[in-house]
Structure formats: C-alpha cells, structure tokens
Amino acid sequence: MKYHKKPNTFVELVELKVADLQRSVEFYENIIGFTILEQQANKIYLTADGKTALLSIEQPDDIMPTQQKTAGLYHFALLLPTRADLGAILRYFSELNIRVGAGDHLVSEALYLNDPDGNGIEIYTDRPDSEWKWENEYVEMATLQIDAQSILTEGANTPWNGLPAGTVMGHIHLHVSELDLTKDFYNALGFDVMTPNYPGALFMGAGKYHHHIGLNTWAGIGAPPTPENVVGLKAFSVVYPSNEELQIAITKVKALGSEIFEENGIYTVKDPSQNKIKLTIK
After folding, report:
1. Which CATH number does the domain housing residue 243 bear?
2. Phi first, then psi: what are they for 219, rounded to 5°?
3. Per-residue pLDDT for 66 more than 80?
4. DSSP H or E segment with residue 27
5. Domain range for residue 19?
6. Cys bridge to 77: 30, 141, 170, 226, which one at CB 3.0-4.6 A?
7. Where is the VOC domain (predicted)?
8. What's the whole-number mean pLDDT along residues 79-89?
C-alpha cells in the first residue's frame, strides 16, 4: 500500500449521498464489510481499520434517485491487502448469490458491484508492481477475463470477517464531460497520465501508481453535472504529503482559473465537470 501513504499524493475519503441511510448502512456493513467509525444525525462515516474513514454516506433532505448520462461517480475502488482477501470476498459474494462483474486489468484484478442507489464499487488487489509492464512513462492496462478459480483457490484458507484493516481507498473513477481540460486539472492537482490510450478514458496517478484517478466520457461527451439533490458523489478527498505540495497544487489549479475555497484548513475545488474535491494534508 506504499502508493497510498507518504510521500505520495492519494485519494482517501469518498463522500456519497444516498436515498435511504439505513438501507445503505446495512449494505455497506453486511455486504461490503465496513464498520461504523462515527455516526451523526444524517451522516455515517465508515472504516476498515477502526481509525480512518474511507467512505461517508448521508441522506440529504428531498434527495432524488440517480440520473443517467451525467458526470459524477463511475465507481470508487477499495484496495484489499492481498489476493487471498479478494478470494475470500469473492467466495462470500458467491455464498450470498450476489452477482458481480470482474476484470483483469494486468496491473490488478477487480470485482464490481453497485450499492442500493446505483453507486459503483470496485474491490480489487494489485499485482506486484514488479510485474507491471511499462512503455516509457506509461503502464500497460487492459480489461480481460479474471481467473476466478485461481482467485478463489488463493483465498480458500482466508476467512471473510469484513474488510481487512489494511484496506485503503485505492482510486476513484469519474464520469466527466470531456478529457482534455479535465486531464489538465488533475495534472495540476499532482496526478500524471499513466495510461493514455484507453478508449474514452484516462488513468492518472501519483508516484508511478497505475491510477489514483480514473476519468471517462462513457456517459457522453458534454455530460452535465449531477444535480445537487440527486444521489451519488458529494465529494472526495485528495491527501498531500506536506503543506508545501498542497500549496503547489493550489497555485497550479488557480492558474487554470479554478476557484478554491478554504475552511478549517481544508481546501475545496471543483473539476471542470463540477465534481467536488477536498484538498488536505495528513
């Protein structure tokens, strides 16, 4: 998990709006394996290690169901510590008859499902970075069929007791309205293009990680922002290793014409598709 701590910049807390808080809590506890870290009136913070919030869910007043063909969340991605953990949760999903999608991305092996509001979730493990294939500064990625039996075999002796303590928010993948300006925005935040030639998508990472940020136009070029009163992504946090690196990112983003707001040491900015990002240090 070296790509999700200092000295790297990474994504940590993803904040979701949901239609029914109790329904979502039951799903994220019983199906995904989170535990509650903190509970407020209409907002709950969820954790894997009992210390760090990786996901928050809240039920705003007058919230509306999800809308198609808008910018916003494609999925957030939980990175498990080992392939055996992936085998354990795949076995657990199978026992519960939960249908999941899957993909072998060369750098990682992943499972996909949606929460009750249609928010996308990826659960994955990375292959050792020594096995990643590079061409100059770009890493090779694809979407192939997983070897499910091999993954299940690897996890055969690993019990599933919820998300392991070493689970982190591996990346976030967003629907955006276009790629060029969005690429420049996330580059200013400190992320480099890692895979440039994926159809309709870009993958950007810090510290040579295959991606902390995924971007796609699969909801359509020019897709409008998700309205404020609709379920989906509220915000996500980008964590910097130092105040110096945070200030560099702020300066670069301001130079692109983006407005940044500061409150209690947390800076908030919106990308060109109006996805909200909180910039912080840890």
Report:
1. 3.10.180.10
2. -85, 0
3. no
4. helix 21-27
5. 2-281
6. 170
7. 10-126
8. 98
